[in-house]
Amino acid sequence: MKGGILIRFLGVCVQNLIECIKYLFDRNVRFREVINQAALISFDSLQISFIIAFISAAVIAIQVSKEFLMTGAEAYIGGTIAIVMIREIAPGFVALAIGARAGTAISAEIANMQVTSQVDAIKTLKINPVGYYFTPRILAAMITVPMVVLLAEFIGIFGGMFVSYETISLHPARYMASAWAWMRVKDIYISLLKACVFGGLIALVCASKGYETVGGAKEVGKSTTQAAILSTIYMLVADFLINLLFYIA
User: Fold this and answer.
1) Which of 4, 34, 64, 230 is most exposed, with the fewest beta carbons within 10 Å of its own?
2) 239, 238, 223, 235: which is closest to 104 by C-alpha?
3) Residue 133: phi, psi to the nearest 5?
4) How far apart are the C-alpha atoms of 178 and 60, rounded to whole Å?
């Protein structure tokens, strides 16, 4: 995608976010719909998120265990896996999984509403369609994606412990001692912040792309594909900026 398209669409997303904030402060949000969207976005993504977290930690454990054992640094395996999972793997991979599953569903749903004139029907009732459709989804994603990420971090850390024990017979007590020694509360806070930002971005970008859809079923498919690409790009940029802000600045 061209840079101009990314910048233009970013402006569209900012405008939609402002509309959602206004809608939220007008107390028009249907909290029943927020709960429904939370189930669709995060609860239904628990299984794939946990599988990704476990496999990612297992792969890291396999990659580093023998090398650390050869250098006598096997006591650092737990800390290494814990830091990598908390800082990057869990928030990043879980958000990508939710974006691929729930984000595309959001885009397809709103795009279908747009091409079937359901959005126009909402406008005739003098209801702001951006606030009505976007706000519950953004709130649900921002609230629940951090919960999924936190659970995925536990799954990943314990998955790494299991694989380390099976591959090099690293005692779980040594593994967990290293993990606790390396973990910091700051890292967990930043991880949850990332998850909150990523969740909001996924819902906002995918909903905005679906809302722009004009045409028929073919355009719905195109919008869904583009929504997945755009949400991934913006999420990675946000990840870089958050790391730059908290770990370098």
Assistant:
1) 4
2) 223
3) -90, -35
4) 16
The whole-model pTM stands at: 0.90
Q: Which residues of 31-65 are buried (b: 16+ CB within 10 A; e: fewer)?
A: eebbeebbebbbeebbeebbebbbebbbebbeebb
Structural tokens at position 143: 């609230």
Nearest Cα neighbor of 108 from 14, 243, 217, 32 is 217
> Where do we find the tokens 């709960």?
35
**Would you give per-residue pLDDT tens digits along the chain (249 residues)?**
566 778 888 888 999 999 999 888 887 788 888 999 998 888 888 899 999 999 999 998 888 887 777 777 777 888 889 999 999 999 999 999 999 889 899 999 999 888 888 888 888 888 888 888 899 999 999 999 999 999 999 999 999 999 988 888 888 898 899 888 888 889 999 999 999 999 999 999 999 998 888 877 788 888 889 999 999 999 999 999 999 998 886
Tokens of 3: 């840079």
Is the distance from CB of 191 to CB of 91 less than 8 angstroms? yes
